[in-house]
Amino acid sequence: MPEPAITVAMSVFNGARFLPEAIESVLGQDFGGFEFLIVDDGSTDSSPDIMQDYASKDARIRAIVRENRGLVASLNEMIDLAQAPLIARMDADDICRSDRFTQQLCFLNDHPDYGVVGSWSEDIGVRGERLIRTGADHPVTHEEFLSSIETGGPLICHPAAMYRRDIVRSVGGYHAAFLHCEDLDLWLRLSSVTRLGNIPERLLKYRRYPAQVSSRHAMEQKIGTAVAQAAWRERRAGRPDPTADLIRLPPVDELDTLFGRAGLAWAVREQVALGLVYSPAALRGDGFDLLVSYLKDGGRCEGMWRTVARLVRFGEPLRAVQLARLLLRSTRA
Known about the structure:
GO terms for molecular function: transferase activity. The chain is of the alpha/beta class.
């Protein structure tokens, strides 16, 4: 096989349900000069069999089956193994449009000052049905990207990203401490060394369903996001990044000490608590305890009656009553 222009990087963990459709969308690209790395990260379902079957039929696929090490380890492993100068991320439950690689390759060839380009995406459900989108699309230019960082808006959809391998290596790849938001942390670190943006076309169908990582780990993701943003502000101010060498993030209450900045732990708690009120998975899990703790410590109650209504809709009437009682006590105090 000639030297590939693109390495496609896909990590799989128990992804058999959607894996064939994801693989076929990559193999069906109108640009075929790529290698396709698929790492099975210790799956217990039929994922290894599926990927090895495809590898036996298409020489571009390099299938790696091993024990579970986690997504961040898999991503960094694929960066090290990549033979191409460009890496296209792909998840095992999403679908590429057939011209995705052509469009992103052309963009990076035409814009050598950009190290990363993503695209807009289309939300789909478990059966591939189109879902109604809410919220803003991802920023197109680097200037819009920087503005979106400031406002906490969307940056780049990870499985829609294509980036220059050597630029990502130059900043140390993905950082293990930011599990479940490793892409956000990477984009923030890259924003100081290269330009990032998105093609304003929906080149990826992004699947949403309750069992996906972003739903199951909503609270950890929100905490990691808040800390990554705090680290970005430190770097922007010319101060050392206290998270740079961490393997895992400390408890939220220890963030003041880590950053040497009084009040940061409270700011992170507030950002996370107010962000979790829209997540059914978080409100059904540990996120509810964090929200209650925040409110008991004097947190903002504005809009929380709507969260009571959400809890009822989410099938959590007891938690709805608990939150309502807390809000009533706060009103009387």
